[in-house]
Amino acid sequence: MEILAPPSPTRFGINSATILDLAVIKDFVLPFSIISHPELYSDHNSVKLTFQLKFTTLHNSVTTHTDWTKFQNYLKNQIDYRHLKINSNTNIEIAVEKFTKNLQNAHRFASKMVKKSTATYIHANIKDLIKTRNKTKKAWQTLRNPLIKTELNRIEKLIKKLDKNSRQKDQTEELEALNTEDGTLWRKAKIMRKKAQKIPALLGENGFAYSDCIKAETIALSLEKQFSLNDLSHRETENEVKKIY
């Protein structure tokens, strides 16, 4: 149980200022705010208590990856496992502290910082359908049975439908969670109002490419040229070699 009170007084006397308005909450973990507003023509302020039932949390884009084999090897090679002589509570606390420190050092040694994946979350039902789709696709490629092809098309349509519904639901929940108090609404509006930058023209062998189609062709020609074998022939040298032999 917790008692909430505004940071400023709610009742003002001739030579006094006190807080008379309180709130009691129990087992409530969501963010909240309580403010005293001097908006009434009296010696008593109104109090506004706001519970943020919908809010967003900022997630760090970096996480840790632990190599547990490395973790085990560190504990095996770096720690002395001789029996401890424990005769008092102090010895127990020292042993626990040492054990905890060894685990932390091993975890720190075997872990490294990595960026979180930006892949889109896929619902478990859709994942199961994708697995079924892949198995059905293999069966169709092997047997070429029209019934299997029909089932494959049905699963494909179902996956697209569920994926579309899931994306719409995520977008709806994201919009409903926007709040003016934490600035998420204004940041989202700023992103939506921002115009997408156009890709500048590309200079290729045939000149500048402006349209998407010509840009794609220019990139394809460039990649084809980069990954083609180099022409190492030299006619003058080859002719000299032929004369000798």
What does this 3D model show about the protein?
This is Endonuclease/exonuclease/phosphatase domain-containing protein. Residues 148-175 form a coiled coil. Keywords: Coiled coil. This protein is of the alpha+beta class and 245 residues long. It has four domains: 1-56, no CATH class; 64-113, no CATH class; 122-194; 195-227, no CATH class. The protein contains seven helices and ten strands. The protein has helices at residues 68-78, 89-110, 124-143, 146-176, 184-193, 212-226, 235-244; strands at residues 2-4, 11-12, 17-18, 23-25, 32-37, 46-51, 62-66, 111-115, 202-204, 207-209. The protein has a two-stranded antiparallel ribbon. It has a two-stranded antiparallel ribbon with strand order 2-3. It has a two-stranded antiparallel sheet with strand order 5-6. A hairpin with a 4-residue loop joins strand 2 and strand 3. Helix 1 (68-78) packs across helix 2 (89-110) and helix 3 (124-143) runs antiparallel to helix 4. The longest helix is centred in the middle third of the chain and has 31 residues, at 146-176. The protein is extended, with a radius of gyration of 34 Å.
